[in-house]
Amino acid sequence: MSNLRDSNILQDFTVWIDGVGKIGEAPNFQPPEINMSIEEFRGGGMDGTVEIPFGIEKIEYDFTLHTWDEQIWTKLGYGPGSLDVPITFRGYLLSPGGAEKGVMITTLCLVKAIKTGKAEAGKKVDMTVHVVANYYQHVVEGNTVAEIDVFNKVTMIGGVDKSASARRILGFTY
């Protein structure tokens, strides 16, 4: 059984939007939740059902900014380029023994919604940004943990390309 001293703990992070660092402006983010799209199947002669994976569900996540950020407003999705807004989270994990490991989550997104907090004179206004990603890459200390590219039919999990044979059969190149 693992305990806290054996864990990797996120120590610090910042968000980058279209190449512009927002250090100190993003107090939190909810990393994307990766879910499999599953359907039940019961074939002829089977006494029960099984669940069959049918790819990845929509990749959505939120992050908050402590500022009324003009740049994010210009990225609100509509028109050319709106599906590929690059949003990256960079940080580091404190690993067992005190070593620091870099972590980076890179996405290409549609900025779906911006919700501003209540505005009060002389106080900061938080903005919650909701995005939908068509590309997701999670890297820890230079090793790609997961990479999902919806438009190019790439699903790499733990270094294994789960979509390689389907891409080959369908004639995709990557």
Written account of the structure:
By secondary structure, the protein is mostly beta strands. Helix content is 7%, strand content 51%. The strands form 2 sheets. Strands 1, 2, 3, 6, 7, 8, 9, 10, 11 and 12 form a 10-stranded antiparallel beta sheet that branches. The longest helix has 7 residues, at 164-170. The relative contact order is 0.18. The model has no long low-confidence stretch (mean pLDDT 88).
Key traits:
single chain; 174 residues; mainly beta; two-stranded antiparallel ribbon; 2 helices
Write a compact overview of the structure shown:
By secondary structure, the chain is mainly beta. The model has no long low-confidence stretch (mean pLDDT 88).
H/E series, N to C? Answer: EEEEEEHEEEEEEH
- What is the residue-mean pLDDT, rounded to a whole number? 88
* Number of helical regions: 2
As a whole number of angstroms, the C-alpha radius of gyration is 19 Å
**Major beta sheet summary:** 10 strands, antiparallel
Query: What structural category do the secondary elements indicate?
Result: mainly beta
Outline the low-pLDDT stretches: none
Tell the overall outline. Answer: globular
Instruction: Give the helix proportion (percent range).
Output: under 10%
Strand content: over 45%
Overall number of strands:
12
Query: What is the terminal separation in angstroms?
Result: 40 Å
